[in-house]
Write a structure and sequence with these properties.
Bound molecules: uracil, calcium ion
Number of domains: 3
Helix content: 40-55%
Distance between the termini: 38 Å
Number of strands: 13
CATH architecture of the largest domain: 3-Layer(aba) Sandwich
Number of helices: 16
Radius of gyration: 21 Å
CATH class of the largest domain: Alpha Beta
Shape: globular
CATH superfamily of the largest domain: Nucleoside phosphorylase/phosphoribosyltransferase catalytic domain
């Protein structure tokens, strides 16, 4: 078999066989097939697409490229959660403790920031002492004790995705249903949970910009999960503005603590509760949305959800006092108010650029070797549909290194569109696929 023949076949709209897809993935991981030929094949896939069988074969070839995690030493039904990525998407930090406090089990392996999107591991590492690297034995012990642990990947999980994602990122081939499905579902199937809840983002800050594409992606992933014997549910949710108000690692931890403690409302809480409710139902803890939601509200109000977060932090080596005193988190040198330059309504946001704003302030990486500053980012004060007057604060910027400050403020101002009509309220949850 030769990779050049597969490239030409896909270029002409042909269907790749399982053997051909296995050859491509194993040859790429073993470095027998070079980046330039895989780039070409990815672009052919991007334009010609893959059918459901090819996408399933791609996913399984990726799963088989590395280790599979065995979570059988953890009690109960483990339900995993995955977002396709966005800005101020702090849901994992909220959903994990919520589900645990309501009786579920969450053994989650998360990732770092990708492109303009934030990464759960970077957020967790802003908590003093917290260690995201745990042995399998300790990971199981933490989940068995407090119902939740969020760690980095252990072992050699889906090496095909590490290589492919890095290549897609620099070849303009990220936003394709089959390639995203393979990337997300291979990681979910390899990481050992019994059931999966997906949060498929759509809008200006998501990889899939339109709802139609996001629904197609959600259906593909739910089908692949179900065919592989893992019950999978997907919510299609909005990413036309940052989900929470905090963008930046320690700031997002603060928002999560406020939500878990019942002190903060908003879109991030709404989506987190919807995801937690689905996870509790899939996990067999509750049989209806109403029961699950009632329990979720109870554990927020009685402090149990926030306590679980503290317990998880403590067991992962962190200072759990942060749940009572967020002043223990890294603080920025200065807070700068960024103000509206005219009257009107917030009409839209370029959310992808708003993710880049936080990156420019130092909250993420523009290259692999960059060190993340936990303290920096911004706290959004206005959301789409809000009215503003000239001089109103749009956001508080938390700043240390000022080298990109001007650029980040101007990118922020250009990304928040103020106009004369209020516009229609955007949906938060567009669809549920099961
Ligand atoms: N998240 C992933 O893990 N992979 C993708 O391809 C896109 C989002
Ligand atoms: Ca303590």
């Amino acid at each position: 078999m030769r990779i050049i023949d597969l490239i030409i076949k896909k270029k002409r709209g042909g269907v790749l066989s399982k053997e051909e897809i296995d050859f491509f993935i194993s040859g790429y991981v073993s470095e027998d097939i070079p980046d330039y030929q895989v780039s070409s094949l990815l672009m052919a896939i991007y334009f010609q697409g893959m059918n459901k069988q090819e996408t399933t074969d791609l996913t399984m070839a990726m799963v088989n490229s590395g280790d599979k995690i065995d979570l059988s030493s953890i009690n109960g039904i483990k339900v995993d959660k995955h977002s396709t990525g966005g800005v101020a998407d702090t849901a994992t930090l909220i959903v994990g403790p919520l589900v645990a406090a309501a009786g579920g089990m969450v053994a989650k392996m998360s990732g770092r920031g990708l492109g303009h999107t934030g990464g759960t591991l970077d957020k967790l590492e802003s908590i003093p002492g917290l260690n995201i690297s745990q042995t399998m034995e300790r990971f199981a012990e933490i989940v068995n004790t407090c119902g939740v642990s969020v760690v980095g990947q252990t072992g050699n999980l889906v090496p095909a995705d590490k290589k492919l994602y890095a290549l897609r990122d620099v070849t303009g081939t990220v936003d394709n249903v089959s390639l995203i499905s393979g990337s997300v579902m291979s990681k979910k199937l390899a990481s050992g949970s019994d059931k999966i809840v997906l949060d498929v983002k759509t809008g200006s800050g998501a990889f899939m910009k339109d709802v139609e594409g996001a629904v197609e992606l959600a259906k593909m992933m739910v089908d692949i999960g179900t065919l592989s014997g893992k019950e999978t549910v997907a919510l299609v949710t909005d990413m036309n503005q940052p989900l929470g108000n905090a963008v930046g690692n320690a700031l997002e931890v603060i928002e999560a603590i406020e939500i878990l403690g019942g002190k903060h409302e908003g879109d991030l809480k709404t989506v987190s509760c919807a995801l937690a409710s689905k996870m509790l139902i899939l996990g067999g803890i509750f049989s209806s949305e109403a029961e699950a939601m009632a329990k979720i509200n109870e554990v927020i109000n009685n402090g149990e959800a926030l306590n679980r977060f503290g317990q998880m932090i403590e067991m992962q080596g962190g200072n759990s006092e942060v749940i009572n005193n967020t002043g223990l988190l890294a603080a920025a040198d200065s807070i700068i108010e960024v103000k509206a330059e005219k009257d009107g309504y917030i009409q839209s946001m370029n959310t992808e650029n708003m993710g880049m704003v936080a990156l420019l302030l130092g909250a993420g990486r523009t290259k692999k070797t960059d060190v993340v500053d936990p303290a920096v980012g911004y706290w959004l004060k206005k959301r789409i549909g809000d009215s503003v007057s000239k001089g109103d604060v749009l956001a508080d910027f938390y700043v240390n290194d000022k080298k990109n400050l001007e650029e980040s403020i101007s990118l922020f101002k250009n990304s928040v569109i103020i106009g004369n009509n209020q516009g229609k309220k955007i949906d938060l949850i567009y669809d549920t696929i099961s």
